[in-house]
Amino acid sequence: MQRREEPGERGEPGGHRAAGGAGRRSRRHDPRRRERVLDAALDVLVEDGVAGITHRKVAARADVPLGSVTYHFASLTELCAQAFARYVELRTAEYEALFTEVSSREELIDVLVELVRGGPSRDRSAVLGFELHLAALRDPALRALTQEWTRSSRAVLARFTGAGTAARLDALLEGMIMHTLLSTEREPRATTRAAIVQTLGPATGPGTRTPGT
């Protein structure tokens, strides 16, 4: 079956100009265009939130014709849902990678402290996560994504702590990350560490086990 061409693939007049730039060359073959549109949508969600996203903003960020965005995503609801699904997929892989080299309780604590204190990439991911949760409060269809993320993150933690402690730790981490994002004063590292250690429980207790056992 012949593939339906996207707007701009043959360089029609107005292709890229609709995305906010004149004179840009149209991409004749762009197999990753849908993926780039979703990544651009995530960038817009970080900057403007669900309330501020538009097809036009996403097209400009992705450097594609406006018609190319609506070709793949007829509605903003569909675009946001698919962008959030991509976020959960990417974040799940990133989260698992954080713990790949963890082989002791102290290493686990160090990773968790850094996760809370974070940096630009962590802040971006956290903003997207909170945007997803806020959107899911109003759109029940998105709650499957929030549940998927919760299950996967707790499953990673449970490999080190057991299911019960993982659930409490996951809730603590989300709260502490939100507090860090919103606070005007950076919390001392020792305070962050003490809260995590307390939630983990005694080093030899049933709530924490040696990774890989």
TrEMBL record:
InterPro entries assigned: Homeodomain-like_sf (IPR009057), HTH-type_TetR-like_transc_reg (IPR050109), HTH_TetR (IPR001647), Tet_transcr_reg_TetR-rel_C_sf (IPR036271), TetR_C_31 (IPR041583)
DNA bind region: 54-73
Pfam families for this protein: TetR_C_31 (PF17940), TetR_N (PF00440)
Keyword Ligase: no
Gene3D superfamilies per UniProt: Tetracycline Repressor, domain 2
Residue segments, region Disordered: 1-33
Record-annotated HTH tetR-type domain positions: 31-91
Keywords: DNA-binding
Biased composition (Basic and acidic residues): 1-15
Domain of life: Bacteria
PANTHER family found in the cross-reference section: HTH-TYPE TRANSCRIPTIONAL REGULATOR RUTR (PTHR30055), TRANSCRIPTIONAL REGULATORY PROTEIN (PROBABLY DEOR-FAMILY)-RELATED (PTHR30055:SF231)
Name of the protein in question: TetR/AcrR family transcriptional regulator
Species name: Streptomyces andamanensis
